[in-house]
Design a protein that fits this description.
The complex is a heterodimer. Chain A is mainly alpha-helical. Chain A has eleven helices and two strands. Chain B is of the alpha/beta class. In chain B, helix 3 crosses helix 5 and helix 3 runs parallel beside helix 6. Classes of the chains: A mainly alpha, B alpha/beta.
Chain lengths: ~290, ~250
Amino acid sequence: MIEFVQLVLGGVAVGCVYALVALGIVLVYKATETVNFAQGELMMLGAFLAVALTSAGLPYWAAFAAAVVLMALAGAALERVVLRPVLGRPQFAIVMLTLGIGLMARGLVAAVPEWGAQTHSLETPFAGASLHAGELTLSADHAMVIATTAVLCGALTLFFHGTRLGLAMRAASQNQLGACYMGVSLARLHSAVWALSAAIAAIAGVLLAPITFVHTNMGLIGLKAFPAAVIGGFGSLPGALAGGIVLGVVESAAGFYLPEGAKDVAAWVVVLLVLMLRPAGMFADAAPRRV
Amino acid sequence: MSMLAVESLCIAFGGIRAVADVGFEVGEGELCALIGPNGAGKSTVLNAVSGLVRPDAGRVLFAGRDLTRTPAHRIAALGLARTFQNIALFDHASVIENVLVGRHRHRRSGVVADLLGLPAVKRAERDERDRARAALDSLGLGPQAERMVAELPWGLRKRVELARALASEPRLLLLDEPSAGLSDEERADMATAIERIRATGGPAMLLVEHDMGMVSRLADRAIALDRGRVIAQGPPQAVRKDPAVIEAWLGG
């Protein structure tokens, strides 16, 4: 039993990272109707930035904050320079574009001499520490992921319900025409959403760094974030969070109890099951979206 | 100076001339109705005024200011509000939240100040809620304030959209078929609501409407369009009897 609880805890921690990446994807999708396949790569960039900043001598927390701010700026710039010109083009073109952005980000990072194609580790002040409760152990890295995700979700809730910009984002995600005629600038809103989404990606990257190391293929975590978003009902923020955590737990259990290889398939099995039993996802909108 | 002046407006969609050389004015505090058979170009004119459609020629002046090249959200920020024939509300938000978005143009607070909940922000927020409430109460929507828009019947949604537009304290309000899809009783309520807005010194209004009873009851002036042209304008009773209007409605 204790072994199972331990597995669940580890699964929740990893699931939180999936959830954060999924959160970024869903945010951008809801506000701009663009499916961003480069979200995993944004996370990877955030992690590399944090590594670069710490090796330049910045303390962990300062590097964490700086990486998040820099990635937010990068997200806004990406929207302004690359995505805004293709606004209104066929979905297919935009999807290809985000895939291309992801591949370019990977190539770019591999081309940086210091970074290259090797793995790096991010030094944290709490490396090696762990929390104990009875026979349960939770490494500080994992605890940090869970705690940060919880705080971030609280902050996002406050943001969406308590600020003018948050309310405008929710409004635009439900009816762009209506929001526009209330004086909401959709162009500026899109930049803000991309900035927010890239900042969340950077947070995910910095949190994941001590657990899996930092390398150019880190962004492949997107392959877990998409199922997480689908499980939650693509378009629901609480859904993305729950989807990510469910996925993390299932994966961790599958990795332990099932033969090798099952772990990587588990995510997609869950997606299939959810799509068969509850096609709109766990947290689907009450009313179907009008197209 | 007139609140709205439309000058020789021309709009074509492909080879179809939807609006051809249309010109009219709406005075301060005036209520004008655009009438005409289906396809006459009424909605296109409304969309051009609110910046959704760019005219091929002609100008739209709002309180003397040329709007022809102004993006839609800027036009809204200048004090021009509108409603939509098929309603453009935020379905998964409460009624009062919808109306609060209508206050967007009057608020300046930034994200950080909002999140910190500075006293000034709190005061402004309370003020906004009070104004939103007042807009709801004035249209008899007070009891619905906390309900989700998605739960409301069509007639109430139409009124919520009107409340949202009013909450932005516009100088000119465009109403696209306010009675479309409403029952007789809801129509009467809507007409009463519009009359009450006018009685309390509301904005100038431009109304697209099919229901001639409603037009006669509400409008100071009617502008009849047919195939993209103005064929008559004047007091609703006179426009109704105009031979060109009768011809357009009955003949083909």
